[in-house]
Amino acid sequence: MSVGIDLSGKVAVVTGGSRGLGLEMSRALADAGANVVVASRNAVTCHEVAREITEDTGVRALGVGAHVGRWDGVEDAVTEILDEFGRIDVLINNAGIAPTYDSLETATEALFDKTIDVNLKGPFRLSTLVAPRMPEGGSIVNVSSIASVRPKTTDLIYAAAKSGLNVLTKGIAQAYGPRVRCNTIMAGPFLTEISEVWYTDEWRERAKSFPLGRAGRPDEIVGTALYFASDLSSFTTGTVLPVDGGRTAMT
């Protein structure tokens, strides 16, 4: 997927980069030549993934334990990355959570705050810390969800946070352009670790009515991520791009 895209010498940070879509993007960025920072709450896993990336690709990779929902912790992570590499060229705000609840009435304040903290506050804090330090041509890539435009009662808090992330994308693009670009991948259903919860026979049957008729493979996020991370998207900013097998194209 990285053919024709050369990110040699760049430093790319991926939050939630140790598994699922984040892991696919971390590996793809390294394959394209970027030095990669794998960040998530589990520092041990991040270190292990970073070691594997370096062994497989030869690029420098760093594992950083960081809880993006914690304001001061995010700042510490940025300081650690800049101390190690001296620059950040690409930031992919991928970390996210979608906790469930029995009903809207039973959702707790703690659950609400945690969902907003990780999905919205974290990307805001990271972006506003990193963007002023980015060199010319820097790129911020947010990972949103089609829930942001197709909310359900069962994921309303998550959907509201991701909707806020879509808006944040447009505001960051205005605030830090033309030096830094900011775009969003609005992800549809992908077969990651959490897909077991919803990827039922009933869902597969319903998905046959979608334009591409299926859920996405994790590696199918890579092309869009590399496009936004690279100079191929040099005239694209403030964009929210669905990568969802055509789900949001349906009326």
Q: Can you give the mean pLDDT?
A: 95
Count of all domains = 1
Number of helices: 7
Question: What is the rounded distance between the termini?
Answer: 31 Å
Please tell me what the overall shape is.
globular
CATH architecture: 3-Layer(aba) Sandwich
Strand arrangement, major sheet: 3-2-1-4-5-6-7
Describe the structure.
- There is one protein chain.
- α1 packs parallel to α2 (43-57).
- The chain has helices at 20-31, 43-57, 71-85, 109-130, 156-176, 201-207, 222-229; strands at 11-15, 35-40, 61-65, 90-93, 138-145, 180-187, 240-243.
- 40% of the residues lie in helices and 16% in strands.
- The protein is globular.
- It is α/β, with parallel strands linked by helices and 251 residues long.
- The protein has a seven-stranded parallel β-sheet with strand order 3-2-1-4-5-6-7, sandwiched between helices.
- Belongs to the short-chain dehydrogenases/reductases (SDR) family.
